[in-house]
Design goal:
- By secondary structure, the chain is α/β, with parallel strands linked by helices.
- Helix content is 38%, strand content 14%.
- The protein has ten helices and 14 strands.
- Strands 1-9-8-5 form a four-stranded mixed sheet, sandwiched between helices.
- The protein is globular and about 65 Å long.
- Bound molecules: pyridoxal-5'-phosphate (PLP).
- Pyridoxal-5'-phosphate is lined by residues 59-61, 85-86, 88-89, 131, 157, 159-160, 181, 183, 193, 195.
């Protein structure tokens, strides 16, 4: 039997009664858009993260876009970010006519290298977007300190890190704004698209709420330009059901991640570092291998799927390379050639994990 890359079926089986009951409730009341589950989820996620406001939105991409719109980002503005991430982080900047300014990453975490941020700040810089990659939070204290010095807001792209902690505080509540994704394969996923924005700034929260519904402050009063960016009630109901198992899943992810690190510690495989002042929710468990193509083929033959997060830094992608020197982030370039993600889910059994490690080291 092939091992799934992420086992969502086992998770569904474990939560089937709760999920079905939650979905049925929505079908009964029929408020598919902005039904009571939307507010219920926002209240629960607010309490979970400690942020004063949570605004659910249509996806993680929409969360980033709405956040930038709420900050008033204009064409020509510069946004500092990492090229080693999913395309959405950069896409939203370019969609608003702003310019992504790419800063290289740390080789041992793949998160933005804070020591290289300040040199990229200009009079046009309007925000910094670090990404908490693979489930581990970026160096938020240092990033916030630089941002404060230059009076800049920080948006944590926490699409992969919901549930992770940094110095005892939850990801999504570590900077001006935190954005997450409920894409099905994310640590907290729904059964479609979904996402959320977190902030403790009242005026940003009001702007995000209005932009989410076409910039509407009251019915048919459009005070600002917005988007159709709501999260469906049914998807909120799914996340509410999944929250019941989430603390257990976070612990399991950490156990599975730590076990991979222990099993691979002595091997000739590059491992990433988990900093001692934070936790990871291991959205991915990624390693560095020099013969990636051969390893992927060999694992695939043994029924073990792998993935590459990410094969090409965004400043080398055809749509974006004219916006920044493609060669100015050499670490991202080098890691992109070596990185490979192994199956990871809270329900991955020790037996399956042993098989994966055995095949990887064969
Ligand atoms: C780092 C990062 N940012 C943004 C996103 C976009 O989230 P979504 O797929 O929900 O739009 C993702 C999702 O893959 C992601 O991994």
């Amino acid at each position: 039997m092939p091992i799934p890359f992420i086992d969502l079926k086992v998770q569904y089986k474990a939560l089937q009664p709760q999920v079905q009951e939650r979905i049925n409730r929505v079908l009964e009341h029929g408020q598919y858009i902005m039904g009571p589950e939307v507010k219920e989820l926002e209240d629960k996620l607010q309490a979970y993260t400690g942020a004063k406001h949570c605004i659910t939105v249509a996806s993680g991409t929409e969360a980033l876009l709405i956040s930038l719109m709420a900050l008033g980002i204009q064409p020509g503005d510069e946004i500092i970010t990492t090229p080693f991430t999913f395309v959405a982080t950069t896409e939203v900047i370019v969609l608003l006519g702003a310019k992504p300014v790419f800063v290289d990453i740390e080789p041992d975490t793949c998160n933005i290298d804070v020591s290289k941020i300040e040199a990229k700040i200009t009079s046009k810089t309007k925000a910094i977007i670090p990404v908490s990659l693979y489930g581990q939070v970026a160096d938020m204290d240092e990033i916030n300190a630089i941002a404060e010095k230059h009076n800049l807001p920080v948006i944590e792209d926490a699409a992969q890190s919901f549930g992770a902690e940094y110095k005892g505080n939850k990801s999504c509540n570590l900077s001006t704004i935190g954005c997450t994704s409920f894409f099905p394969s994310k640590p907290l996923g729904c059964y479609g698209d979904g996402g959320a924005i977190f902030t403790s700034d009242e005026s940003i929260a009001i702007a995000c709420r209005e932009i989410r519904v076409h910039g509407q402050s009251q019915r048919y009063v459009h005070t600002r330009v917005g988007v159709g960016g709501r999260m469906d009630t049914i998807q909120c109901a799914v996340v509410l059901a999944k929250l019941e198992r989430f603390d257990w899943e976070v612990k399991q992810r950490q156990l599975v991640g730590q076990r991979y690190s222990e099993l691979l510690a002595a091997a000739d495989i590059g491992l990433f570092t988990l900093r001692s002042d934070r936790t990871s929710v291991y959205a991915q468990y990624s390693v560095l291998v020099s013969d990636r193509d051969a390893k992927q083929k060999c694992l695939s033959k043994a029924g073990i799927p792998t993935a590459v997060h990410y094969p090409v830094p965004l400043n080398e992608q055809p749509a974006y390379k004219h916006l920044c020197c493609p060669d100015c982030t050499p670490i991202a370039q080098q890691i992109a050639k070596l990185v490979m993600s192994l199956p990871m889910s809270p329900d991955l059994s020790s037996d399956d994990q042993d098989k994966i490690v055995g095949a990887l080291l064969a």
